[in-house]
Amino acid sequence: MAQVIVRNIDDDIKAGLKRRASQHGWSMEEEVRQILRRAVTEKAQARPRLGSRIAARFAGAGLDEPLPELHGESIVPMDIGA
Predict the structure, then answer these.
(1) What pLDDT, in 10s, does the model give residues 16-47?
(2) Which CATH code, of 1.25.40, 1.10.3470, 3.30.2420, 1.10.1220, is assigned to 11-57?
(3) Which of 7, 30, 31, 64 could crosslink 21 through cysteines, CB 3.0-4.6 Å?
(4) What pLDDT score was predicted for residue 46?
(5) Is this prediction's pTM over 0.85?
(6) Inter-residue contact 31 to 24 (CB < 8 Å)
(7) Distance (Å, rounded) from C-alpha 71 to C-alpha 69?
(8) DSSP string, the chain
(9) What ranges do the domains of the chain cover?
């Protein structure tokens, strides 16, 4: 197996890795292996992103037009006649 050395990791990153490793019940080294393994295999699996997953979930709901982007626009709440 190959070895990788990563230098100059911030102390808070190292502490976060230690915390995650402890939560999973394994060593910090194993935590890093798991993170790297997931990072490499997720690309190969090409998981759909959040927007695509939401669109797929509501595909049969009768929406026939694309939704407009609302970046930076104010949102007016819908009147439901309460």
Answers:
(1) 999 999 999 999 999 999 999 988 886 656 66
(2) 1.10.1220
(3) 31
(4) 67
(5) no
(6) yes
(7) 6
(8) ----------HHHHHHHHHHHHHHTS-HHHHHHHHHHHHHHHHHHTPPPHHHHHHHHTTTS---SPPPP-TT---PPP----
(9) 11-57
